[in-house]
Every structure is written in structure tokens, then in C-alpha cells.
Amino acid sequence: MIRFNGVSKHFGATRALDGFSLEVGEGLVYGLIGPNGAGKTTAMSILATLLLPDAGTATVDGLDVVREAREVRGRIGYMPDFFGVYDGLRAGEYLEFFAAAYHIPPAERQRLAKMLLELVNLPDKAGVYVDSLSRGMKQRLALARCLVHDPRVLILDEPASGLDPRARAEMKEIIRHLKHLNKTVLISSHILPELAEICDEVAIMDAGRLVACGTVAEITAVSRGARQMRVEVLDRAEELAGFLASRPGVVDAVADGPEVRFFFGGSQAEQAGLLQAITNGGWPVVEFREVRRNLEEAFMAVTGEGGEDIERG
Amino acid sequence: MKEVNPVLLKELRQRFRTPKTSWLLALYLLVIGAFVLGFMYLSWRHSPGIFQPSRSRELFIMLSVTQLVLLAFVTPGLTAGVISGERERQTLNILLATRLTPRQIVWSKLVSSSAFVVLLTVATLPLYSIVFLYGGVAPEQILAAFGFYLVTMFLFGCIGVACSSFFKRTGVSTVTAYGLAFALSAGTGFLAVFLYEMDRFQRQEAWSPAAWSSGFIAGAVEFLQNINPVFVLMKILGQDGINTGVNLGLPYWGIYTVFCLASGVLLLYWSARLLSMRKR
What are the distances in angstroms from CA A9 to CA A6, A44, B92? Predict the structure, then answer.
């Protein structure tokens, strides 16, 4: 449904996107994560036909965002990271205005606005001025605006930014509902645990490039590369850290109280051999296990210094 | 029936819903009304019981010039923020991501702002009726003056919209729009007078005061005074401009109208191009 193919974009000397490629399947909720300046907003702006790429192509539903921009606009709903307010316009009028901008027939607009306000849990706000709504309500109204022309693809740039926990939960619920309506949703966020909850797949970006992509489970499992391990012993933890540092495949072995943490790049059999070596060395092992990483830790691992290069298999 | 442009409808709804609009209209009428009534009061004090038609003509000239000055202030001020304001509110990208074309957005912004300026101008008609009360001015002159205001508003409005599309900040856009409106209103007039005076000195030195020393300079002075709003308004009000003897192929009002409309359309076209470049 969405495809980036070697897209690059520069702003003067700054490289916002550098040969960025990504594919998003139909009906998926797809998370785009990365540190500030990773290129998420630039990628989304190109998809929303607001920026021209310097190189590469991007398509929505098979339509090129540069050559067929007008058709693309009819198929996407775009929500930027900041909700711009129109003074002196009521919520219902706001939606009717955008319905008109998408050439929805006048007879349908009022009913459509009412239906969308109900969808985003603002049924009693049609007559309220937009600038008097709370931030969470404005975000939900913005989401309703994205849906006025019933687009197949939604591009949501940081939709939960600045929202309180309750408003974030409401937003999450609405996005889940959109998934049931078979919308393809591309969503960026800094709140990684929440993305993990609602996204079918995620892509991690850094410095304008795709660093990792796959399901949340795939990303966090780190199918290739070093695994973080933890050994708890009854005594001589410092000595064990020194021993582990000398073993092949072990890096960054650090003792912390009775436990030693380290990264291990070997196979399952080699991992079993390592445990055997520890017990043969006389250390009384209480626990030996892999530390399961959540999305946030995976994100830090792949975007941080010396991060692993994780690709979906 | 063709539907009204949604941006235009929204802009009109927003503009005319706020009490600021009524206050601005009241203030505008107050300023012009104060000028007119003040002038009449002074005339009455000068010669009580008598009001000559020539005084009525002076009143008409004063009213018309005041109106022009106020329009030169109000029009760029209203239009210089129409696009940059959307950019500052971060609503421009949302608009551009819809099916509206940049041309539709630019045109509707101009029309909605101009509609308010037209309202301001039309609202002053009762003040013009005071001039009629005492005679001395032909109805055609008033019609010509209102036609002149319309084309002048169009050009000033287009200058504002173009500045607003080019500059990211409304403050910079407004200052530049005022600068350009001032250059058009005063700069062209000053240049015409300067060229005329320079030529006159040359003629005096050459002992041939009747003929212009250069046909090009005479043509330039004629053109400059025909695109200068103050000179054109004065000619509409029956005053003489600089006599160059040059015929540019159209009457002065024709040159002014063509200049305003053509420049305005070019500026609008450029503004729409700026929005569609997608390099923001």
C-alpha cells in the first residue's frame, strides 16, 4: 500500500533522508520510530505530497506521490505533528469545511461531520469553537478531519504527542478501531511502549536511513546479532566477569552485585557451552538467562553507538 | 449551481463572525467621518450661513484622498498575513494536502480579504451623500472614484498576498507589503516629478522651455503618473497632472486599470506557484 524506494531528501547541507526504502502492507498499523532528526516527518511529508524527494520514488496504492499527487491526496488522510487552530470556527463547521475541500457533496457534509464526531468520541462538541477544545479533543478532531473523505491510508505524525495518559489511551483506542475499518495507518511516535501495543509492524529510522523493520516481536527478539545475557552467582561475580570477558563471543561483561551482564553473539549450542564452562569453573550459578528487551531497549540498541544492524529475515 | 469555494466561505464566516470586524468598520467610518465633519465645521466657522459649491468640491477631494490613504493602509495589512498566517498556525500543510489547488487557495484568500475592504468603501457612501447635498460634484466622478478604488484595492491586495506567500513570517510580509504599496503610491509620483524637474532644468539651460529634451523621459513621466494612484485620483477629481504631450495609446484611467489588473494577476500567479513548489 505504501512504498518508499531509495528516497533521499536534503535541506541545504542537512541530509534528512538518505536512500530510505520501506514497504507497508495493506490494512497494517505501521509504526515509524527514530530519534529527533531521523527523517520521520520528512518521509511522511513526502508521502503527503507536501515535499518533493531529491531522489527515489514513493507510492501510495501504486500511485506516484510526485506525478500523481492529486490522486494520492484523495487516498490519504494526513495529520501533522501540530494541530493548527482556526479561530472562530466550530468543530462541526471545521469538519464540513474539510469535507468541502475534498469535494464531498454539500448534502452529505453535515451527516458526515456528525458521524465522524461520534467516531472520535466528540458527539456533543459539534457546536463548540475549535480553539476552546482541549489538546486531546483537538487531536481527536484532527483525526476525524483525516477521515472526511474516507481515505485508505492514514499518515499520523506524532498523534499522541503532548497528550495526557487518558487522552493517549483514547487515541490508541481510535487507532485500533481504524484498523478494524481496514485502514492502513503509518504512525510515528516517541512513546515506544504505546507503539508496541497498537502496531502490527515497526520500522526504526536513524539519520535518514532504515535501520530495522519487522514485527514488534521480531525487533525485540533481535533474531541476529548479540543477545543480552544475565548470570547470577552466589559469590565471586567480579572474577566471573573477568572470566567471561576472555571467552569468545562475549563482550561488555560487567559485574553488578551478585550478577554479571554481558552481550553474547554465539549460537544456542555455544550458549549452553558457556554455561557449562561457568559451572566447571566452580561458580555457584543461581540464574543464567537472556534478558528480553522491550521495543524501547531495541530502539536504543539499534540507534545508539555501536548499535546492531538488525534486519527482518 | 456551482458551489462557493470552501476556503472563501470559511474565511468570510471567520472574518464576519468576530466583533473585531465591526469595530474596525466603525473606526474606519469614524476617521473618515471626523475628517468630513471637521472640514464642514471649519468651513461654516469661516463663512457662517454660506456653503459654496467650490467648497463642496474641496470636500470631495479631501474625502477621496483620505479614503485612498486609508485603503493603502488597510488593504496590505489585511492581505499580508493570509498565507503566512496559515503557515504560522501550521494549517497550510493541511490545506495543501487536500484536493484544493494552490490557485484556489490564493484566489479565495484575496477575495475574502478584499470583500471586507469593499465593505469598508461601500460603507462610506453615506458620507459622499453629504458632498451631493451641496452640489459641485458630478455623479460620474463618484462612480469613477469607486471604480478607481476597486482596481487599486485589487493591486494592493495582490501585493499583500504575494508577500504573504513569499515570506514565512507575517511581520516581515506586512512590512514589505507596506513598503511596496508606499513605493507605488509615493515612489512613482516622486520619480515622475523628479524626472520632470530634471528635464525642466535642462530645457532652461538649453533656452528651449517649450519642448521636452528627451522623448523617452517625457514618455516615462507620462507612464509613471498614469500608474501612480495619487496622480490618477487627482485626474479623476478634475485636477491636472504633468503635461507631457505624450500619447501612450490609452486614456490615463485605461493605463492605470490595465497596469493594476495585469500586475495583480501576475502576482497571484506567482503566489500560487510559490505554494505549489512543495519545497517548504
Answer: 10, 12, 21
